[in-house]
């Protein structure tokens, strides 16, 4: 028995100026991972591919992995990037001889000229092989199109945000395929969406409105539904089908799938006002943080979250933290490869003055990002490599490239050369910083920070900074999403 396993994951922010060439999928490797190197990198990790590998080994299947590629969110992938990644999968499908195909995808990937990259891959795959069972695991932020659903045998999504059940979603999808191959079940699926763009800051599964919705999905699966997924969507993709959707898979009972699909969608729609985030001005939020004596207080620079396609180089929140003279602060992070090189060249222990961040223009939000002049001592220089130890992507290797820590006296600023959302405590421990000893921990994150830092936070302050992951939809010029859609339009 032979199974084809593949991973192509990218969450596309169509407002982001960060380019997405093929090299962005290398993640510190000399090329995209494939074959035994991919299996070694992802086996026993909290990843969808890790779940696939576990079931394939249990079933005694020979595994072929033509590609295992993932990139931090950014702007649309180049047409060449999309084509080369698809070709790695499609060429292997063309060779044939597979009993199952298991794809670990994102669901919100956009390429130049292709607003549904995953659907494009699946449609072309089915033109080659219309019959082999295909499992698809998608991120909770997937924007679902019909081509994704109609060309898959089963689709599973995450039930947590932060995503700490990625492996579990892979296991569910692979187990459905294993049972299908044995003739035990005949999966059927139904999907639909609602005209709503939930704010990402309201999507965490630690609280309503998303928590009860995802709990209902788990109840349905515990009751015999093969897979029940609510995809909250990725609103920073200005594409037709962006927004919240539901996909339900049952054993041969399409009416049941449709009934549960509608139940989930109605639950989300009826509480649509709860999915709207209301930002506060920056200066008062920093002042409020300054008055808190017991740390660590987590401050979120969520308008510039690289995990949603932010440039990770805007400085508005850092500038306000410095202006109001908060003490004993760590700031993670500014992505500025040149600043990292300059600090490393100066050497550990040296005091330098640099122009930090503000290198990438953001025409989509019509708001400038200015470099910030910072003077501080170079405290640490290292290669930026660490393994996740927390519940999200546990065991997966991260590589932020040349990384330095600059200490201003009040604020320790981590400067990285590659994008990385801070969702694991090792991003700081690897840089020689213990967040438990800090009064303030400033993170360029929205929700994923909770995976590694929520247990230690005494309070959380959400800071309105500058960036293309803005929580103010009024800053974004939506041209392609279907209208009317809530909350862009009154509904």
TrEMBL record:
Coiled-coil intervals, chain numbering: none
Keywords: Hydrolase, Metal-binding, Metalloprotease, Protease
Residue ranges occupied by any Microcystin LR degradation protein MlrC C-terminal domain in the UniProt entry: 299-480
Cofactor annotation remark: Binds 1 zinc ion per subunit.
The keyword Hydrolase belongs to this UniProt entry's keyword annotation: yes
InterPro entries (alphabetical): MlrC (IPR009197), MlrC_C (IPR010799), MlrC_N (IPR015995)
Domain Microcystin LR degradation protein MlrC N-terminal: 2-289
Signal peptide feature range: none
Any Pfam family: DUF1485
Cofactor: Zn(2+)
Family assignment from sequence similarity: Belongs to the peptidase M81 family.
Purpose: Involved in peptidolytic degradation of cyclic heptapeptide hepatotoxin microcystin (MC).
Protein name in the entry: Microcystinase C
Protein source organism: Achromobacter aegrifaciens
